[in-house]
Amino acid sequence: MGFWKDIRAVIQRELLILVNRPLYLLGTVVPMVFCMVFCLTFFRDGLPHDLPIAVVDNDNTSLSRNFIRQLDATQLGESVRFDSFTEARHAMQSGKVTSIIVLPKGMSEKVQAQRQPQIEYYLNGLYFVGGALAYKDILMMINLANGAYQREILRMKGYSDEAIMGLIQPIVVDTHQIGNAYTNYGYYLTNLLLPGFLELIIIIVTIYSLGMELKYGTSKQLLKVAGGSIVKALMGKIFVATIVFTLMGLILMVTLYQWMHFPISGSIWNMFLDVFLLVMASEAIGITIIGFLPVPRLALSVGALYSVLAFSLTGFTMPLEAMSPWIQGLGTAFPLRHYYLFFIQEVVFGAGFAGWWKEVVYLLLFLLVPLVILPRLKNAYIYQNYPKE
Amino acid sequence: MKHSIVFNWLKDAWEISINELKRIFSDGGVILIFFVAGMVYPLLYNIVYINGILEKTPIAVVDMADCSASRRYIREVDATREVKVAVRCTSMQEAEKLMQERKVKGILYFPSDFGDELAALRQATVGVYCDMSSFLYYKNALMAVNHVMLAEHHQIQVERYAATGLTDQEADQIVQGIPYEENNPYNPAFSYSIFLVSAILLIIVQQTLFYGMSLLVGTMREKNHKHVSLPEHLQGRGVGRVIFGRGTAYWTVYMGIAIYVAFIVPALFGLPQRGDFWNILMLLTIFVLDTVFFSMVWSSLITRRESVFMLFLFMSPICLFLTGASWPTFAIPGFWKVFSYLFPSTVGVQAYLNMSVAGGDLSTAYSQLNVMVIQSIVYLVLAFVAYYVENWISLHKERLRTRRDKLDAKLGIDRQKMRSIIEG
After folding, report:
1. Which helix (H) or strand (E) holds B183?
2. Residues A115, A121, A126, CA angle at the centre, nearest 5°?
């Protein structure tokens, strides 16, 4: 019975620490709430709209003005008029417009004479999403203009409207977006950014709370309370944190998939499992880092490096397969990566257990990693023979 | 010999500056953050995103039409840079299973009437199914299929017009009524690394400076409870000298790091450097100054050595989104736009992209440079305020403590007992 008694004693001590150090609350709940508010409001448009597109209208006829009106009518773009290309280029270089369209002089005249006037457009690929979306919009506009022009000519030649559509647009592409039918950037980014922030907070707080025992020399007392067992000490110490982190994770899932109605093809209950495993695996990483480097500031620096890098190596923005093979291998060392693969199976495809069981195994494997450093951490806790700063 | 006030002021500031430099270089944690993180992080991001372009995304093809038109379409899609046809399936179920198993990232589907519709001069439909777990899969599949569609249109249209008795040239004139020319001068292939790494560089400068300085401030707070960052002999006066002296120390060190990050790193990895050297140097001068004052103000909230990571680490990714390099500035809600002006990185990154990567002159970063100057002045004033507040607190420590004890007694909190349980 001594086992549970010791653990309870550690938990009681841990609760006192929490009450005494408001920093734990400030470092756990406040950042998570901030990040949730940030992601859910920052990307609220889902897809940017009315992106400024510079138009240099050298033609200035009803045809070119009509083109600009139609551009304004699209959801993505909005025209900004410039008198000269130099001014427009300056605005694009300054990031004030996403792109430039140059309507050539005599465009209308040449169109009527079937002399193929050439439209030029320029994109700023440095402001990435804006540039890519403006690109999409401009391409669509030019093709529409082409279509309208062809329709005009074919009507004059006496074709029926159905025949015209077959001539202008012989092939139609019908796009289906699996897992994000509205092509909503907000859903896409928030789905992974927020679990990423959760992982970051857990790793840092775990390292901090275990490291402070070393820094303030209280680790001997901790072991004493835990009856001299590092396992009991860790279990007790992590117990309270695990409850708080898990609660945060569950609230996150409910917020995303119930309250904000993010599309999910599978079940939210399975996502509860995913986020719980993410919490546990992140704690295991935190313990491993401080056990391996029992110097709080070093461990925190490494933890910071690791958890910020996780955003890149999870591969939800730039897919991992575009990176070098050894970096792809490195990706598997991040719990967030496995959370993501689980997420794809459950949220995107609704594949259920058969789809994600492997990721569960991976995430559980993370729990074994701290075992390697337990003796080292115990020695550090007993002898306190590492620099404290 | 009696010296003038100005001389004494400068002498004090000089001593404080040297003293701060000694502190920086004798603290392993700060060295780790300034010189190891500050120098290795930019390299690391370059290595991670070294290819920068996702090519040959595998897709499955379900060709129920199996006609010459669909076969040609498939060949052309396979030949694009974005996509490769990895598997040919006989049914949608089979293809969907492959996509769920993540062996393919998209499906191209030709309904059985595809060829017949084309032959009857009607519209034929081709279906694309995209895995949305990364937007780059979606972008690749869509771009490949649409580009081929446009090329096919051209081909088919010319054939159809020819059938109506037009010559090839006449047909081409109708089909390509308004041809177009595409230019993407700063990032020709929409490379992920050019935009992302270029944006991250100055964020690394800001964040490492802030973390390192906070680490030192936290350390001093732990060691020395009186006149925390003011030298003893000034007895709580001389705030101006301290800010000037400390600022100079950090500015000098960080100009070195910023030059490395903004000039040498891009050169090492072949990122575009189209800007004028002196313009970029001027940008860095103001940016580092701004960041030093920014860090001075915010680090004054740090009371313990390590707590900066707990309190502010999550801001690093957020700073990236605030720059507008990824999510366009035009789509950022008003509140967050205002919030973004708290950080030098917001305007610093924009100015760096405009001048260094896009090759603009000073005028393309005019408003950003102005904002940085205003930020610097505001943060300088706030730094003074922070020092005065800190001074006041350290001078009135006793009174604050008795007030806290009274509150504890009222609430029935026994700190002594708590301490004994925690510390033994």
Report:
1. strand B180-183
2. 165
What is the domain range of residue B395?
5-49+191-409
The whole-number pLDDT of residue A144 equals 85
Taking residue B80's Cβ as centre, other Cβ atoms within 10 Å add up to 18
How far apart (Å, rounded) are the C-alpha atoms in residues A145 and A143?
5
Instruction: Among B125, B140, B175, give the residue marking a domain's end.
Output: B175
Q: Is residue B422 situated within a structural domain?
A: no
Predicted confidence band at B226 (pLDDT cuts at 50, 70, 90)? very low
Cβ-based contacts under 8 A for chains A and B: 360
The per-residue pLDDT of chain B, averaged, comes to 88
Q: What is the mean pLDDT of residues B156-172?
A: 79
Cβ of A301 within 8 Å of Cβ of B363? The answer is no
Does residue B65 share a domain with residue B12? no
Say whether both B123 and B233 belong to one domain: no
Question: B420 touching A, CB under 8 A?
Answer: no
* CATH tag, A51-168: 3.40.1710.10
The count of structural domains within chain B is 2
B246, B391: one domain: yes
Measured distance between the N- and C-terminal CA atoms of chain A, rounded to whole angstroms: 38
Which residue type is seen at B60?
Answer: A
Give the separation between CA B210 and CA B296, rounded to whole angstroms: 8
The CATH number of residue B163's host domain is: 3.40.1710.10
Contacts of A16 (CB under 8 A, 6+ apart): B418, B421, B422
**Interface pTM, i.e. ipTM:** 0.91
Q: Is residue B181 part of a domain?
A: no
Checking DSSP bridges between strand A51-57 and strand A171-178, what pairing results, if any?
Answer: unpaired
Global confidence as pTM: 0.93
**Domain co-membership, B128 together with B263:** no
The answer, for B338 touching chain A at a CB cutoff of 8 Å, is no
B-contacting residues in A 315-374 (Cβ below 8 Å): 315-319, 321-324, 327, 340, 343-345, 348-349, 351, 355
The CA distance from B167 to B175, in Å, is: 12
* Same domain, residue pair B119 and B230: no
Q: Which of A304-308, B33-37, B174-178 has the lowest mean pLDDT?
A: B174-178
| Tens digit of each residue's pLDDT, chain A (389 residues) | 578 888 898 898 888 888 888 888 888 999 999 999 999 999 988 889 899 999 999 999 988 999 999 999 988 999 999 999 999 999 999 999 999 999 999 888 888 888 888 999 999 999 988 998 899 899 888 888 888 888 888 888 788 887 788 778 888 888 898 888 878 888 999 999 999 999 999 999 999 999 988 888 888 888 888 888 899 999 999 999 999 999 999 999 999 999 999 999 999 999 999 999 999 999 999 999 999 999 888 899 899 999 999 999 999 888 998 888 888 999 999 999 999 999 999 999 999 999 999 999 999 999 999 999 999 999 888 888 777 65
Residue B421 lies in a domain: no
Asked, for residue B424, whether it belongs to a domain, the answer is: no
Which residues have a Cβ under 8 Å from the Cβ of A362 and sit 6 or more positions away? A332, A338
d(CA A80, CA B346): 24
Residue whose C-alpha is closest to residue A259's, from A195, A45, A268: A268
What the block records as the tokens of A181 is: 């039918």
Q: Do A131 and B190 touch (CB under 8 A)?
A: yes
Asked if B154 and B207 sit in the same domain, the reply is no
* Same domain, residue pair B117 and B171: yes
Q: Residue B330: which of A51, A118, A173 has the nearest Cβ? A: A51
pLDDT reading at B398 higher than 90: no
| B165 and B299 share one domain | no
B107 by DSSP, 3-state: which? Answer: strand
Residue entry with tokens 């379900």 = B62
Residue the block writes with tokens 């990435």: A128
What residue in B sits closest to A316 (Cα-Cα)? B134
Contact residues for B56 (Cβ-Cβ < 8 A; gap 6+): B81, B82, B83, B84
